[in-house]
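Worked problem 6 (solution included).
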Amino acid sequence: MLHSRKLQYIDEIARCGSIRKAAQRLNVASSAVNRQILALEEEFGAPLFERLPRGLRLTAAGEMCVEHIREVLKSYDRLEARIRALKMPQAGKVTLVTTVGLAAGPLPEIIARFVAENPRIRIHLRSDIGDTTIASVVTGEVDLGLGFNIPPTPGIRTVATFDVPIGAVLPPGHPLGEQERVNVADVVQEPLVLAQTGTSLRNVINLMLSPLPLPIEPVVETNASEMLKQLVKRGTGLTFLNPLDVYDDCSRGELVFRPVADPHVRHQPMKLFARARAPLDAATSLFVDYLLRELAAMIATLQERRHLPETAS
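Solution. The predicted structure is:
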């Protein structure tokens, strides 16, 4: 290796919060891992970890150290991929973090086609919620992030954005499904199953419902979009989601999506983002181009089916 193994030790301890767990994952003795921590702390002249009764926690110096370590490890991975690509074009690995809804919605189909066309590229996909989607990209744990309502954040750069509207999700045959657009006031006359309070989607929904004279009490709240879809299919209530969350369900005729007609309703911006200072390697750039084409095609298809207003982009 071009870099010391102690870098991997420190990175793994930061992830595990325990010398014992890190040693098990690295398949080395705990004493060897501990020696590397002590040696590096002696070099820096500052503790990297705070010793707690239940494990280790990074100090401020440790956080800076781990950020640098992950930069070095990612750079080494990119170098390895570039060297492999000289012998085996389009070989490499793409790491992506996204929301639970997108991971269960349009991404499986897109990734399946990409892997079929690029069998030498490995995809590492994980789904997170809230701020961890951004943090994983900022710290260099993953190459790309894809999510909704991502705020401007130091350390990340926007690769692409899509303006995706929120709409009503109905079971097939529901009377509101006969309309091209629905009024929020009509939807809330029915029982509702909604995204959990505190989620970014619920924040958008709350803004949408705020002009109504009475507070809305959903019969079910959950942070699992798949559960919301299943409840609508079972007739428990209606919900509000974005059309990409229900793309496959609508294609199979299991659900109906209708954009809302109310002019005050804001769209839900979807952002593909990467670390600001980290260039994308060949495999990741190839995947980004493919992903953007596929998402644009899906949105165009939804527009043709009149599931989206023509202004969405």
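Discussion: The radius of gyration is 23 Å.
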